[in-house]
Amino acid sequence: xxxxxxxxxxxxxxxxxxxxxxxxxxxxxxxxxxxxxxxxxxxxxxxxxxxxxxxxxxxxxxxxxxxxxxxxxxxxxxxxxxxxxxxxxxxxxxxxxxxxxxxxxxxxxxxxxxxxxxxxxxxxxxxxxxxxxxxxxxxxxxxxxxxxxxxxxxxxxxxxxxxxxxxxxxxxxxxxxxxxxxxxxxxxxxxxxxxxxxxxxxxxxxxxxxxxxxxxxxxxxxxxxxxxxxxxxxxxxxxxxxxxxxx
Length: 247
Ligand SMILES: O=C(O)CCC(=O)C(=O)O
Ligand SMILES: [Fe+2]
Known about the structure:
Elements: E1 14-16, E2 39-44, H1 56-83, E3 103-109, E4 126-129, E5 135-139, E6 152-156, E7 159-162, E8 170-173, H2 175-180, E9 190-192, H3 198-201, E10 205-211, E11 219-220, E12 232-233, H4 234-246
Bound molecules: 2-oxoglutaric acid (AKG) and fe (ii) ion.
Family: Belongs to the iron/ascorbate-dependent oxidoreductase family.
GO molecular function: metal ion binding; oxidoreductase activity
Organism: Triparma columacea
């Protein structure tokens, strides 16, 4: 298949079909929902992901959006650093100059009026998980605002709550923030459930998450805990998460 360079998270980005990812298996115990009912097209910040990997029209739009998201991210990082009384570029300096862990995912959740042989009967659009790295800046689908359609939900306390964005972006903190802030920030469990009515099953969902993460050799440790701590290497952490999701 064109532009398919291997499993989700491969260095070249590109296309991953339905039935490859099992994102629910990356958070704690093995998932009950099986492979995710989604296909993806990905752009990555990686030397192997160059312009020759992508269809020209898609590349121009994808890279333009990628650049805009990086501009937003730089501001978010400054706000985060200032809120912790750290120097303004404390986080930005671990991302640029790249390559870093940033990637843009175009997620297409097909209509569910037919069943697919690569999925199990318990498959949902995207299994419950926390995001792997630092901020995710998500442009969700407008159908999430309608009950029984779309399906994005976040765990609040012990309850799943619908995320209604009303045209806005959703910013989510991933697992590396928990390590980086010594647990002051939590990573929120979220998922995308299936449409509920027959009519809703005939509709598709499109979302555009921009994942971010520091350069692979960044050692992440509690910024409040002093220099001599054990840390986790950002690139190795991401590699392990992706390995779980694709196996
Ligand atoms: O499709 C969505 O809105 C969310 C997807 C998601 O949670 C993710 O890509 O990590
Ligand atoms: Fe997510």
